[in-house]
Amino acid sequence: MPRPKPLSGFPEFLPAGRLIENTVLDIVRGTFELHGFAPIETRAVEPLDQLSRKGEIDKEIYVVRRLHADGADPDELGLHFDLTVPFARYVLEHAGHLAFPFRRYQIQKVWRGERPQEGRYREFTQADIDIVGQDQLAAHHDVEIPLVALDVFEKLHRDLGLPPVTLHVNNRKLAEGFYRGLGIEEPAAVLQRVDKYDKIGPEAVVELLTGEVGLSRTQADACVALAGISARDESFVDQVASLGVSHELLDEGLGELSALISTANRTVAGRVLADMKIARGLDYYTGTVYETLLNGSEKLGSVASGGRYDSLASDGKVTFPGVGYSFGITRILAPLIGKGRIVASRSVPSAVLVAVDNEETRAAAIETAARLRARGIAVEVAPKADKFGRQIRFAERRGIPFVWFGAGHDDSVKDIRSGEQVPASADAWMPPAEDLRVTVGPA
Amino acid sequence: MPRPKPLSGFPEFLPAGRLIENTVLDIVRGTFELHGFAPIETRAVEPLDQLSRKGEIDKEIYVVRRLHADGADPDELGLHFDLTVPFARYVLEHAGHLAFPFRRYQIQKVWRGERPQEGRYREFTQADIDIVGQDQLAAHHDVEIPLVALDVFEKLHRDLGLPPVTLHVNNRKLAEGFYRGLGIEEPAAVLQRVDKYDKIGPEAVVELLTGEVGLSRTQADACVALAGISARDESFVDQVASLGVSHELLDEGLGELSALISTANRTVAGRVLADMKIARGLDYYTGTVYETLLNGSEKLGSVASGGRYDSLASDGKVTFPGVGYSFGITRILAPLIGKGRIVASRSVPSAVLVAVDNEETRAAAIETAARLRARGIAVEVAPKADKFGRQIRFAERRGIPFVWFGAGHDDSVKDIRSGEQVPASADAWMPPAEDLRVTVGPA
């Protein structure tokens, strides 16, 4: 078999990259759990009619069928393209066994049959949190969700050296109330154009609003003026007020957004930006919306996004409103790992290589390894009885910091970086804390 | 949307079940790493021609294609049905970047389009370890692999109360050498029939061997006598010798198997059985073979299996021999979780619910929660300002053991099981170690 070629859009890491990804996922998962989110995992496939309901996303779906499918097979299936559709189905299917408000996290691969290009993948990992209520869900949960996101990103920044982030937050009620206060009947049409603010600039948005939506120049100017407002504190409220528009829904949105900003700033100052041009394309958001930019890598686009929705799902009697956030794990990590901007301290978990002098002493080496492992130290035994220098080079190639010599009869351990070698007991010796596990950090 | 029905063969857990699964996977992963295995994750899909190479497995494959595929699309893809085919491809693709012998683990979903039935799934999780060499791999690695398996299963038994296991081990060289020593030309044909020993019994195997394979009655009797031999120590060597057959390959197999049994018994006594009737269906095994039965649930079949193979992959110049073990995580857990034989201490990660007296004090509750989380305690804030009793019931329903009252002004914490309530500081109080995390154990 000739050397296989990678499949475009399906990123895979070398072991060191996967060690980095696992370290990140452990932080993400641990933080979700600290905030009381319970894990679920859903199957990779959903019935095709569930996946294709949203017209425009049709073409991105991967259809799945048995190679030798026959008439007895159930309806066609597709791979899920996000974790929201399967979660909505899961909530409906298991509602009787869940306690609401239900806080769940879910970290899984998703698949999209898009044309692969820079920053777009056909298979990638998402990490989602959602809080879902039965018929109602209090507004204060919109404040809670970005606190989790900030907690995650601050740890990734502090512990692993990932770039810090800025959370851009807006509120659909604020925008819709503002537009209605201007006498605009179709706020959705306006929002759709304002969504292009960053790409095409304010003047072009004004043109779209007057040309395509039919707003007056005054209305369009006011909409674009609103979109231009942003602030890291509650000063945006006065800025919006200075535009002289009033509407009940606008006040509600302003109130929700300023509560969010002030609570977030009490937790981690300076990371959240009230940003009136954030719209989020998806129709189902109805209140707060979130986007997250990696500082210095803004051109990647939002790496974690979400918002409030009135109806995740409904069984006809009960409706499930919620608020959620989705972290694009692959989108964040693949460029950092691929460009070597974040690295692992070694390519294997092992902190120690137990050397083997000759094959007759292998049993003693295995026993020494077992004693070290019993105390939580990752160890491998040299695959070959070999000379001193070769054992060192074997460890060096993998980044294993310590080599254990004379297992079971004349035990000593050598730090191959400093060259220091000391007598040691397999029941007592510990590597320094920073060498015990693989560490991950900036290059 | 009406309540969705489960898809047969695609098991999903409620959050408490997923907490159990995660606890198990953490032990599995942690143990693999203690033994120096590095993680990889491969994409879910492989080119169809790679997956369908092994004729008989054809019909189990799920084909994957874009809903609106066009001529420009690459070759058809299929979901992987095990982790060996993708690993073989990964080794060939990345050989230049891997250090051999390469020790890797891989924990992922696999898919098989089989008819669903008791104990068979269409989507399930496997956890694989393999040690792969370049052109050669020493025999002692065959001894190392079951030590990892024993370490995993002993921890699952000791820490989570899973049933203990028996590792059944055999060696293809032993069987093949024995058959050749009897003058049999087609050892594979014999092995294939001996594989049915447990299902159809020794007499029926003798009939197959004389009828279908054309052995003499004496040859067939000897083969079945060999298959009947098993021992928890090295006594099997004498039992085989007493059958009076000799062959070089038989001696090699006996030597490898007794080294394995004696090393395994030094590590965990009484869990390994040299079992001469273990054949493993797959053709590519060439030496040691492993199967694992859950004591008391033998009818589930082998829940973890593997063996030695001469060629995982080859690029024409280099061949990659290896030895591996695959743990059927879903196969082990789905029945235990489904029947409630293993349970989680609560259905959410939270150890503490911070009560909210009235909505004006929510900010103080959020701050108290943050202080507890900063010290590693999983916390959620009550979604609603409510009466004392209702807050308790909210925690009770989820199994949260502690409720925090008077956040920020008159802090106290109540163990809702004992009713004991004590003044506490969010910067100092810790729950007992056994309440800090969700614990998993027998019902």
| Terminus-to-terminus distance of chain A | 36 Å
The biggest beta sheet of chain A reads:
9 strands, mixed
From the 3D structure, determine the CATH topology of the largest domain in chain A: BirA Bifunctional Protein, domain 2
Helix/strand structural class of chain A: alpha+beta
- The shape of chain A is elongated
The overall pLDDT of chain A, averaged over residues, is 93
Give a count of the beta strands of chain A, DSSP E runs of length 2 or more.
19
Number of helices of chain A: 15
Radius of gyration of chain A: 27 Å
Major sheet strand order of chain A: 1-5-6-12-11-10-7-9-8
Helix content of chain A: 25-40%
Overall CATH class of the largest domain in chain A: Alpha Beta
Query: How much beta of chain A, percentage-wise?
Result: 15-25%
The CATH homologous superfamily of the largest domain in chain A is named Bira Bifunctional Protein, Domain 2
Tally of individual domains of chain A: 2
Low-confidence stretches of chain A: none
Largest interface: A-B, 103 and 103 residues
Multimeric organization = homodimer
CATH architecture of the largest domain in chain A: 2-Layer Sandwich
Protein model, in words:
2 copies of one chain form a homodimer. Chain A has 443 residues and is an alpha+beta fold. Chain A has 2 domains: 15-42 and 84-343, Bira Bifunctional Protein, Domain 2 (BirA Bifunctional Protein, domain 2, 2-Layer Sandwich), CATH 3.30.930; 352-442, Rossmann fold, CATH 3.40.50. Chain A has helices spanning 15-34, 48-51, 84-94, 141-160, 172-181, 187-194, 197-200, 202-211, 217-227, 236-241, 248-267, 329-338, 362-374, 388-398, 433-436, and strands at residues 38-39, 45-47, 62-66, 77-79, 102-111, 123-132, 165-171, 230-231, 272-275, 285-294, 304-314, 319-328, 342-344, 352-354, 379-381, 402-405, 412-415, 421-423, 440-442. In chain A, strand 14 (352-354), helix 13 (362-374) and strand 15 form a beta-alpha-beta unit. In chain A, helix 1 (15-34) runs antiparallel to helix 4. The longest helix of chain A is centred in the first third of the chain and has 20 residues, at 15-34. The radius of gyration of chain A is 27 Å and the shape is elongated. At the A-B interface, helix 1, strand 1, strand 3, strand 4 and helix 3 of A face helix 1, strand 1, strand 3, strand 4 and helix 3 of B.
